[in-house]
Amino acid sequence: MKQGRTIAFFGSSLLSAYWNGAATYYRGIIRSLHELGHTVTFYEPDAYGRQQHRDIPDPPWARVVVYPGEGKEGVSRALESARSADVLVKASGVGVFDEMLEAAVLEVKRPGALAVFWDVDAPATLDRVRESPDDPFRSLIPRYDFIFTYGGGDPVVNAYGALGARRCVPVYNALDPDTHYPVPPDPRFSGDLGFIGNRLPDRESRVKEFFFRAAASLPCHRFLLGGNGWDVPETPNIAYVGHVYTRDHNAFNSTPRAVLNINRESMARYGFSPPTRVFEAAGAAACLITDHWEGIEMFLDPGREVLVARGGHEVAEHLRALTPERAHSIGRAAYRRIRAEHTYAHRAVQLEKVLEGVL
């Protein structure tokens, strides 16, 4: 991508991670694009209480435009102001006006500009359009210059290709080493295993299996649960800490003996979809235990840089055997691997090459 390109990005929120798991991803990608000389304006709605739960102030590396979450006047003005951009991006899961935006960015882009659909939940999107052939987005897919995805590997690339996508490119989650890094332990988050994740329909049963089942089998171990929406059983060894703001992620990851990643069901089914938590934990040199999904070895080496579990019983087995020394060794190995190969600076360079036709 040539220096000085302007990018208009319509997404859920850059300023708030509240009910918005993609915030870390957006921030890392956009900040790294800014550092390469590109100018990004991020358009986000005032919706779901996110503006009342901001994690960061307006950043110096992007201009943020917040439009009303109700009524179409505000989003229409935002679209009009984005008309002059070199690249127009519509991310999935904005939460309001999604259908309108998916069509409108294609209509307002000027000649010579690029339109990108950036799918941060490709498994859900693909399942939806397959089940509903009359879904309005289905007919728009071939009109986008690029489909970028949060992950998914060849299964997602092939699925989008079958729907007529011109080109689908996974742009995986990564680490922003200036945001996520090791810090001293924080007594608020002391324990044996920590997990952060909002309660979502296709995650809940997996959390019950991988987290609550492990906690039930290890009554003498202390478990920490962060995120929104959970009804925590009255179990003495589980501490529910509620929403964990971005400013506390490093402490949460650096303090327990291990931290747990649990993919949503659809992400695990497609594979090749490491969530932001994987990179945040590795960036803090945490010992990570993850549920099994295809493609993990592309990012971390099982047994040496990450521990992999196929159920709550294996999570419990890992914890029983995990000494502080081994936890430290695994965490440091993951830290070195991710910083060397999987930062948002790496992803931004990839994006430049893709948009310029080099890759």
UniProtKB/TrEMBL annotation:
Residues 209-352 form the Spore protein YkvP/CgeB glycosyl transferase-like domain. GO terms for molecular function: glycosyltransferase activity. Pfam families: Glyco_trans_1_2. Its EC number is 2.4.-.-. Keywords: Glycosyltransferase, Transferase. The keyword Cell inner membrane does not apply. It comes from the Bacteria. InterPro entries: YkvP/CgeB_Glyco_trans-like. This is Glycosyltransferase. It comes from Candidatus Nitrobium versatile.
